[in-house]
């Protein structure tokens, strides 16, 4: 299912995907060096697409609002080209160990939006992030 969702990013009029990762995600070995190298290589590859950005929040920034939130996804929907109204209100998706959960009330979405804004301020730019991912990939290759 996740691979099918990834295919959405390659279709005409593909959605935009902006990802911010904690540096630990690229540094902490998971599944062995070969798997880490392959995964990080894939991340660098997808950043070549114009509709995908991946940025890293480095350890050096210290604490950030996203630390307490855990992993989350904000889904923003386009406007109806005829009315200018949003097709759907924003949603927050939380992928838990046992289920997925959608938050849609503004008072539920707003704290995640604030956390996202803080992460965006503290994350490296796309080029510096790609360099850090490449460096981490090389580190996993050499271990």
From N to C, what is the helix and strand string?
HEHHEEEEHH
| Cα radius of gyration in angstroms | 17 Å
N-C termini distance: 32 Å
Helix content: 40-55%
Q: The biggest beta sheet, please?
A: 3 strands, antiparallel
Mean pLDDT: 91
What does this structure look like?
41% of the residues lie in helices and 17% in strands. Helix 3 (33-46) runs antiparallel to helix 5. The protein has helices at residues 2-7, 23-27, 33-46, 106-122, 126-142; strands spanning 17-22, 52-57, 73-75, 91-95, 100-103. The model has no long low-confidence stretch (mean pLDDT 91). With 143 residues, it is an alpha+beta fold. It has five helices and five strands. A hairpin with a 4-residue loop joins strand 4 and strand 5. The two termini are 32 Å apart.
Labels describing this entry:
single chain; alpha+beta; 3-stranded antiparallel β-sheet; two-stranded parallel sheet; 5 helices; 17% strand
Chart the SSEs and their pairings.
Elements (H helix, E strand, L loop, with lengths): L1 H6 L9 E6 H5 L5 H14 L5 E6 L15 E3 L15 E5 L4 E4 L2 H17 L3 H17 L1
Parallel strand pairs: 1-2
Antiparallel strand pairs: 3-4, 4-5
Could you provide a short overview of the structure?
The protein has 143 residues and is of the alpha+beta class. It is 41% helix and 17% strand.
